[in-house]
Amino acid sequence: MLIYFGEKITIQAHERVRTLLHLLEAEPIAGIRNLHPAYCSLLVKFDPLKWQHEKLEKELRKYLGRLDKVKLPEPRHVEIPVCYGGEFGPDLESVAAAHGIMPQRVIELHSSPTYLVYFLGFTPGFAYLGELPQELVTPRLPSPRKRVPAGSVGIAANQTGVYPFETPGGWRLLRTPLAMFRTDREGLSLLSIGDHVRFAPISRERFAELSRA
Amino acid sequence: MSAIEVLSPGLLTTVQDLGREGFGPMGVSPSGVADPIALRIGNRLVGNAEGAAGMEMTLLGGAFQFQGACVAAVTGSDFSATLDGAAVPPWISFEVRPGQTLRLGPTRSGARCYLCVRCGIEVKPFLGSASTHLLSGLGGHEGRALRKGDVLKIGDPLEAKQKGTGRSARSTGGAHDSNRLQKVAPMALERLAPRKVLRVTPGPQSGWFPKAAQRVFYANAYRVTEEANRMGLRLEGPGLPEGAHGDASGKARGEMISEGVSLGAIQITAGGLPIILFVEQQTTGGYAKIANVISADLHSVGQLRPRDEARFELVSFATARKLLIEQEKLLASENLIVET
Fold it and tell me: What ipTM was assigned to the predicted interfaces of this complex?
């Protein structure tokens, strides 16, 4: 069952998504198997043996009626060091060229805003971050790369994100040394829905140090 | 503790159980077996709880040497299994003596078969499940498909009993405490056989597709392409008429904002052709979904091979639920498994 909070990506709609997710995690409904939050919708996967559509909808409406009273926890702030360009970011030059600006300006623009983690999807730990500054909005590559190295920072349309694993992908690449998804860490994913994220430009030397750590 | 050595892995063999639900907010899809019915019954045949981990083989099976005595079963499609050269039919439990080798060949029917062993395959669970998630290299045996020389531990009988992963606590099939061999009742097997007509319910964007597009989708057979794996199955056939499909870039029907996608969702891509999202699916997606394969038919998707043809039949949510309840009733029935 899909619950929509509007048909546009807005901070308000996303807050409702997070609030319902928060409430359903705090007070789980037996027979709900999984929750897939996104920009302005929440997919609720349920056990059809336990629930009929109409009955579950009625139950969920009770939760929806309480959203205004629920307070979300304060967002975490996460800083992600990025070594821009060169071998790490093969698309930096072409992105700059596409917008008629210098690569240094792309780095300034990309590392200036505080981004919101709208949701994690695609692969484990892949965070969809928005909004990208208007001047950096760039379409996906015409055809995706077969292999994108883990840790690559990419941009696509008005979104930015970090590839946690070596996977295929069509976003334009910049790059970070941080492990985004690790099984030897409590939280597994570096980022969670609702986090606030900034990118901090670093040197090649610092990149090498962090990669070893 | 007993173990199995992989002499040859086959085309794509992974450790799988029923998957890990509940981690959607982290972007982790459930993974798990492509044909849950085959794994559940296989486990029942060897006296395990239904969700114990087994091996999933794809199109071409492997060869496995058992270090200790064991009770095993091969379920799903017929991969011409032999134990030290003697044929072993599918859907029947059999005893293995130490040192014996089970060999499986190319499939003679559907895409996948399962090897279940008493007490299950033991791997370090990731997020509560033994399932391999190939794309991210997580879960299963070292997060990857099996290779020649891998040694897989079989669960410890005592621990398995305590954890509830071993001998089933179910009342059905009272023969579990003995070594008497069991098989699946032929009538039940017939009713659970994989279907080539997949029943579907309307997808979240089915209303985006005009009548003409719906007609094309439901009237034609679609052929599974070579791009069919645990993440999804790309189909080919008559494309849905232009303008009837939205895509992430918003070329048709305005912007399609990425949203959560469910197992068995049928996306229509920019080219107008369907993709069925499968067990290792991405958790969110930006293509419009015309329909969703019903739960009772998901195991049939797991048995589709490249070049197989499938059709779609629209049913109501109520019918989908009724079919699942009937299927579960059959799976729980005392007559499902009989002694040989």
Answer: 0.87
**Domain boundary, last residue among A47, A69, A91:** A69
Average pLDDT over every residue of B73-102: 97
Chain B touched by A26 (CB under 8 Å): no
Q: Which residues of chain B make contact with A126, given a CB cutoff of 8 A?
A: 27
Domain CATH number, residue A64: 3.30.1360.40
* DSSP structure string for B144-210: S---TT-EEEEPPHHHHHHHTSSB---SS-GGGGS---EEE-HHHHHHHSPPSEEEEEE-TTGGGS-
Q: Residue B114: phi, psi to the nearest 5? A: -125, 140
- The answer to whether the CB atoms of B138 and A183 lie below 8 A apart is yes
Residue of B25, B27, B257 with shortest CB distance to A123 = B27
Q: Between chains, do A45 and B295 touch, taking CB under 8 Å as contact? A: no
**Per-residue model confidence (pLDDT) at position B253:** 42
Cα of B283 to nearest chain A Cα, Å: 5
Do residues A15 and A63 share a domain? yes
C-alpha to C-alpha distance for B204 and B215, rounded to whole angstroms: 18
Residues in A closer than 8 angstroms to B246, CB to CB, are none
* A62 and A87 co-located in one domain: no
Inform me whether the C-beta atom of residue A146 falls under 8 Å from chain B C-beta atoms: no
Q: Residue B238: phi, psi to the nearest 5?
A: -65, 125
Q: How far is B320 from chain A (nearest CA, A)?
A: 9
pLDDT in tens, B164-182: 554 444 433 334 445 678 9
Over residues B275-303, mean pLDDT: 94
pLDDT digits (tens, 9 = 90+) for A107-124: 999 999 999 999 998 888
Domains in chain B: ranges and CATH = 3-184 (2.60.120), 197-330 (2.40.100.10)
Domain span including residue A38: 2-69
> Do both A90 and A54 map to the same domain?
no
Tens of pLDDT, residues A6-54 = 988 899 999 999 999 999 999 999 999 999 999 999 999 999 999 999 9
Of the candidate ranges A35-39, A91-95, B172-176, B184-188, the one whose mean pLDDT is the lowest: B172-176
Chain A stretch 120-139, residues whose beta carbon is closer than 8 A to a beta carbon of chain B? 120-126, 128, 139
Which of A1, A2, A192 to substitute to test the interface with B, most B CBs within 10 Å? A2
- Say whether B257 and A49 touch across the interface (CB within 8 A): no
Q: Which chain A residue lies closest to B30 (C-alpha atoms)?
A: A34
C-alpha–C-alpha distance, residues A71 and A18, integer Å: 10
SS3 letters for B303-339? CCCCCCEEEEEECCHHHHHHHHHHHHHHHHCCCCEEE
Model pLDDT, residue B184? 95
Local structure of B40: helix, strand or coil? helix
Residue of A nearest to B322 (CA): A49
Question: What's the domain count of chain A?
Answer: 2
Q: Is residue B48 within 8 Å of B165, Cβ to Cβ?
A: yes
| pLDDT number for residue B162 | 60
Examine the domain organization and report whether A23 and A105 are in the same domain: no
- Nearest neighbour of A167 by CB, restricted to B135, B295, B317: B135
**Interface membership of A21 toward B (CB under 8 Å):** yes
Residue-level pLDDT at A208 = 84
- pTM for the whole thing? 0.91
CATH number for position A145: 2.40.100.10
Mean pLDDT of B195-224: 95
A16 and A121 co-located in one domain: no
